[in-house]
Structure formats: C-alpha cells, structure tokens
Specification:
Helix content is about 0%, strand content about 45%. The protein has about 775 residues and is mainly beta. The protein is built from 2 helices and 55 strands.
Length: about 775
C-alpha cells in the first residue's frame, strides 16, 4: 500500500528513487518548482550545497539530482532523483518542497508527491487536499529510522514563500533591489543511458533469444515486395513521412539502386535481404556517385535488415549495394515501419516507431555467433527526423539493459550483429491505494487549515524528460520586482533566449560575474553547405575561433566566461537558424565513473588528480577531443583521438580549487566513452616505454637524455612531450620533435596530432 495521508509514513527501499512533484495540467495554473533540502540531525542544512533545485541541480555527494520537468496524460511534474545509499551519514532527512511562482497553492489542482523505484513501482504517494494561501510547501520527507528509510507525508505550507521555508531550514536570505532576471536551468540528462532497475548492464549467461518465425520476413521471391502494414496504434496514426509505391530491385554482387520521380523528398525505409552466408553492404551515393552514408554492413546468414535514409529535394536517391550472393532491396514509405508495442524481436538492423507515452525500454541482445557483436540503438524525434539522435543503448556482447525513452512519436534505429528483443514498459499511473496507518512523527508538524479543494483522481505522472534549460537574461530580458539574492536569488527563471537566423554579433552578459557558465547552442549551417563559424571578439574586434560546425556539430554545450568575465561578444557567420542559452556552471554533469554520450558537453570533476581514457563509440572519423579547464579559466589539452577508434589517455589536472571542468568537443553524431582512473594506472618506466596516440606516462628514473621516435602519419603530424606537475597541470613543453630529448623524472604527457605509434627509450 503506497497511498498515504497527511502525517502518515511508509517504508521505502534504500535504492535509487525517482520523486515527482506533480499537479494537473490546466490553463492558468501557477507553475510549481520542486526542490530538495538535505538536513542534519538538528534539522538544518549544512550549507548552500544542501539545497538542490533547477539552478543547482546536483548535490556534491551525487545523492540528489534535479531531473527536469515533463507533461503527459493531463499531468505536469518536476522530477528529482534520490539515491538513498549515497546519502551521507550526517544527513538524517531529505525534505521535498515546492514553491509557487505567480500564485498560491490553493490555485494548484491535484498537487501531489510520488516516489517510484527504478522499475516504475510506486512506493509512496501523497496528495495535498488542504492547500490555501501558501506560496511554498513542504510536501514530504525521507528520513532514517532504525537503519531503514521511510517517507512521511508532511503537508506544511508557508505563506511567506520560499524565503520563509528556506529560513526555517538554515538558509540565510537577503533582499536586493529589482534587477535583471538571472538565468536558470534544468540539469543535463546523463551522458549516457542510466538503467534504473537492478538488471545487470551486461550478462554472459543467456543463450540466444528465441525469435518467432514471423519476426524476420522470408527473403522475397520473384514477385513484388509489398508494403508491410503498420501496427494499429489506436487513434490517428502519426504519418512519419510521405507515401509512395514501393521500389524493388534485385541483384547479385555489386549493383546500383536508383529512385525515380515516384518517390517524393523525405524519409525512406530501406529493406534489404541477402541470401545465405556472406557479406552485404550498401552506401548512399553523392552527386558525384561517391560513397556517402553507410546503410548496411553485415555478415548475418540469410540477412534481413532495415535502415532509414532520405530522398533529397535536389537529387534522386541512389544506393550502391554489394553482396556475396543474391540480394533484394525494397524502398518503402516510412508508414511500413514496425511499431514497438509490448515486445518486438528481430535479428540485425531495424527501424521501429514508438508512439506511446514515456517508458522504460528493456533490451536483450544475444550477440553474434561468437557471443560478441555490437548492439546500438538511437532515438530520433519523428517531428525532426534529420535532427540530432539520442544514444539509448551502446554495448558489445550479450547484454540485458534498461533505458528510458521520452514520449513518442519517435523512431528507434537499431544496429545489431545478432538477435535482439526490445520491450516497452510505459510508466505506471498513480497508485490510488488505501491509506497507511500512522506512526508518531519525530517532530510536531504545523498544519495548514483545510480548504474545500477536492482531490484530483490519480493520473499517469509524466516521465522525467530530457533537460529543457532556461534561457539567460540576455538582451531585452524581462524585469521583475524585488527578489532574493545569493543562492535563492537564482530561483528566478529568465523569459528569453538569444535566437535568430543569419549572421549576427551577440553580446552575452554573465549573470554571475566571477564564475564561468555553460553555453548550450543549437546552430544550423547556412543552406546546409560550408559549415558555420562562431568567433569570439575582443575589445579591438580581433576574432578568435570559438566553435564551428566541423568540430562542435549543430548542437551541444561548451564553457563561456571561463575567467569570470562580465560579458563576451560572439560573431556568428554562415549560420541559418540558431539559438544560444546560458546555464549555470553547476549544470555540468558530475564525472564520477565511466560515462557514455555523444556530441560536445561539459563535465565537472571533483577529486584528486587522475587520468581519463577517451574512446570513440561511432564509426565516423570526425574530431573527438577533451580539454581541462581550471577554476581560474586556464585551459589545457587533455586527449584527442585524431579521428581514430583506438582509446587514448589524458590527464584530469586539478588545481588548488579541488575541481576542474572537462570539455568534450565532438560533432553531435559522434559517440564517445570517458572513464576516469587513478594515477596508479599510469605506466611507469625507467629505460623504455611505447604507445600510440595521446598518453600519460611516469618516468621513475633520473632525468636523462632519451631517444624519442614517432611514426609520422602526415605532413603536419607532430609529437609533443609535456612535463606535468603533481597536480597533472602542464608546466613545461619538453619538445615537439623526435631524436634525443631531455626527459625529466616525473609524469609526462604525450600528445600526437596524427595518433601514430611512439617510443621513448634510453640510449643503448
């Protein structure tokens, strides 16, 4: 039983919980902001860091995170993630609170708080029925009792608003005159899929997944290949793309498939069959009939696969297909896509449509014939099929994993080297179960007088969405009345963002001078050609490169105001539609372990000096590199893959401030994996060490003349050796050449622009 009344409590598992502060989605309802306060035994916060909200989205311990907001099924919700095993021993209570901007809680219908486990089971649900003139509310609290965790429904209101609530828990609040509204932000989603259940991320035991006979269609015979009818979804189906008659072509060996005028511009579903054992691959072709995008590359016996391609406005779609045996290619409208409802199975690449609400998706992959093989799933918004793709799964070998997906309509693009199975589990509705029995609370809780607001019937709580950051105050930001300064002053949400179309010079104003900020960008190339460029201008209008399409992609995140400047000017050139948003630097994702993602982003690393391995997860050869930025803005190169798939290693240098920011620079389609490791993993050598690409090594012998050799891969390919101090910060460039070099005792960073092999050894 999980539905409890005011003052009641219920046990909760000591696990990762998702907590929703929700209300009914009705026009004119005041917005509600969720927050969490971590309290000690005296019932007070230990400092500003113990308040978690959308502008300070992660607690330093990693135990509490603000996970954004979402809507669906007539509900609005703000989500918090509470990892109870990681709550520090000094913290005795975690209070869940809400504040009401522009109204009172008596005007908020269906106000409730709900806690769910990773698999979607509701463990606590409390609905407020007596709110009136309060502008802040303590909804409930998680507390320790006899070594276990419990949740209590509190329901305490504050007519004095967030300032009154904060003061009660030990946060000092001062007033300041009205001024420009500061920016706010929802935290970033994790860089890679984070399973929310207890299923291990990879297993070695399961055998091949049983595939029913109809999971993979039989290779087509001499007759025409028909369109596979879509699975009925209930209600009006999402069209996904234009309709047209299928185009079928068969061949053996190498052939070219051309689309005539019967196929309109837009998405096209490519079905391919290859009979027997052997190899099949296919590429789309450029205007010059050169290989462009890889469509298929597989050796599955009796292969059948599906992929998504696009017919352009200015040229017909052409595919080069090569197979060891007979093959058939059918070009079909996207309405022929299979739909993910319940469980779907397949072998090899596939395109699936998902049109349901937010869900958790369970994935099982049996691996290839050797138990290895890759399994990758991307999602793309059906309203923008050529937009950015989100990486849902990415692993090698047999696996069982779970990952969240947003509400549809969207497409799931599966790349697999063997049998797989996907099961969609939409998030459950609120639990209207009976009330729990009472346990005497640890302290008397003041109660607001009851009002005549009737409880709303439980409805499905929308799942935690991808982050939707709020804009900075920027040019023309709205002006508000008096607000609190300091930590709570950052609760104000900005009303505008920088956006436009075409070239422009933009001035970004630092909402917190003296601190850096995160710049979230979305920039389209002008007319799709040439690539955009953003330059940073100094006071003399001299320009330095800031970001560009070839290295940063069409969307991502980077740091700005690295030295705490009050403002910067950016000049955008060769751009189409663009938008820029400032986020607080606290929105950087904490780097605490192995992390996967794609595109450019910003991490915050807190801990001792360490090293980080950087590995490419996609098949592209686009730039992929990391840089370390210190608290005072100093930036140093950490690692670069030089367009290769071999993992490389770079330093995580940490100054006296005790933290650093790690910038990942990559196009939005480039997937990567980052894993920090201790200095104990750094190779030590006295007489000789060798490697390939970026690396960090430790010379344990005395300083000596040593021979440096490097396998040059191009005209401008160089090797550079840097001496690092005890914090792994670069202090001296040893050399940029091969031959005899003076190698000091201590830690040395190897940087190579071409990713070639190198050797450092004593003279024999």
């Amino acid at each position: 039983m999980t539905h409890i009344t005011k003052g009641a409590n219920t046990p909760v598992p000591a696990a990762l919980l998702r907590v929703a502060v929700c209300r009914r989605d009705l026009p004119g309802t005041p917005p509600v902001d969720a927050s969490a306060l971590l309290l000690d035994a005296a019932g007070k916060v230990r400092g500003d860091a113990d308040l978690v909200f959308y502008n300070q989205p992660a607690h330093p311990s990693g135990a509490v995170r603000h996970a954004g907001n979402a809507n669906g099924d007539g509900q609005l919700a703000e989500w918090l993630e509470l990892d109870l095993p990681r709550v520090e021993p000094q913290v005795q209570r975690v209070v869940i609170a809400g504040s009401c901007d522009g109204g009172v809680f008596g005007e908020v219908p269906g106000l409730a708080v709900q806690a769910l486990t990773g698999d979607g089971a509701v463990v606590a649900h409390y609905e407020v029925t007596d709110a009136s003139s309060e502008t802040a509310f303590v909804l409930g609290e998680f507390y320790r009792r006899n070594g276990e965790w419990k949740f209590r429904a509190v329901g305490q209101g504050y007519a004095s608003g967030l300032a009154g609530l904060a003061t009660d828990f030990g946060i000092a609040v001062e007033e300041e005159p009205a001024g420009p509204q500061p920016f706010g932000a929802v935290p970033p989603p994790p860089s890679g899929p984070v399973p929310l259940d207890t299923v291990p991320s990879k297993t070695t035991g399961p055998g091949p997944i049983p595939i029913p006979a109809d999971a993979v269609p039989t290779p087509p015979g001499p007759g025409p290949v028909g369109v596979v009818p879509p699975v009925p979804q209930g209600g009006a189906p999402f069209p996904f793309g234009p309709g047209f008659a299928p185009v079928v072509q068969r061949g053996r060996g190498q052939g070219v498939v051309s689309v005539g005028g019967s196929v309109p511009p837009g998405p096209v579903l490519v079905d391919a069959w290859h009979q027997g054992e052997g190899y099949i691959y296919a590429y789309t072709l450029t205007k010059r009939n050169k290989d462009d995008k890889l469509v298929f590359n597989n050796t599955i016996t009796d292969f059948h696969g599906r992929a998504l391609v696009f017919q352009g406005d200015d040229r017909r779609l052409r595919l080069r297909v090569t197979g060891d045996n007979d093959w058939t290619v059918s070009l079909q409208p996207l309405s022929a896509v299979r739909h993910l409802q319940g469980t779907v199975q397949g072998i090899g690449p596939e395109v699936l449509a998902y049109t349901g609400t937010e869900a958790d998706v369970d994935a099982e992959f049996a691996g290839d014939s050797d138990g290895d093989g890759s399994f990758v799933v991307w999602s793309v918004d059906a309203h923008n099929l050529q937009g950015s793709q989100d990486l849902i799964f990415n692993d090698v070998g047999r696996l069982r994993q779970t990952a969240p997906v947003p509400a549809g309509p969207l497409l799931l693009l599966v790349e697999a080297d063997g049998p797989w199975q996907l099961t969609a589990r939409p998030l459950p509705a609120l639990d209207p179960g009976p009330a729990m029995t009472f346990e005497p609370p640890a302290a008397t809780v003041p109660q607001a007088p009851p009002t005549a607001v009737p409880p709303a019937p439980p409805a499905a709580v929308p799942a935690a969405p991808p982050a939707q950051p709020y804009a900075d105050a920027g040019d023309g930001a709205a002006k508000d009345g008096p607000r609190t300064k300091g930590l709570l002053g950052r609760f104000g949400r900005a009303k505008e963002e920088h956006s436009g179309r075409g070239a422009k010079t933009v001035t970004l104003v630092n909402p917190e001078p003296g601190k850096p900020a995160i710049l979230e960008y979305s920039i389209k190339d002008e007319n799709g050609y040439g690539g955009y460029r953003v330059e940073r201008l100094d006071e003399y209008d001299d320009a330095d490169k800031f970001i560009e399409s070839s290295t940063h992609g069409v969307e991502g995140r980077t740091l700005v105001f690295g030295s705490g400047e009050s403002e910067v000017r950016l000049r955008l050139e060769r751009v189409g539609a663009w938008s820029l948003r400032l986020l607080p630097v606290e929105a950087a994702t904490p780097l605490t372990g192995k992390t996967e993602g794609k595109g450019s982003t910003v991490f915050r690393y807190t801990g001792p000096p360490a090293v980080q391995s950087l590995r490419r997860l996609t098949r592209d050869e686009d730039p992929l590199e990391t840089s370390v930025v210190q608290a005072d803005g100093r930036k140093s190169m950490s690692a670069s893959t030089a367009g290769r798939r071999r993992p490389v290693v770079g330093p995580l240098s940490v100054s006296a401030a005790g933290y650093c920011h790690l910038l990942v620079t990559a196009r939005h389609t480039t997937g990567w994996q980052i894993e920090p490791a201790s200095l104990d993993t750094v190779p030590a050598f006295t007489d000789k060490v060798s490697g390939q690409g970026y690396a960090v090594v430790r010379h344990t012998g005395p300083a000596a003349e040593m021979m440096v050799r490097y396998e040059v891969r191009g005209l401008l390919d160089l090797i550079a050796l840097w001496e690092l101090d005890e914090r792994l910060e670069p202090i001296r460039r040893i050399s940029m050449a091969t031959g005899l070099q003076h190698i000091p005792q201590g830690i040395v960073q190897v940087r190579t622009s071409g990713g070639g092999k190198w050797t450092i050894e004593a003279r024999g």
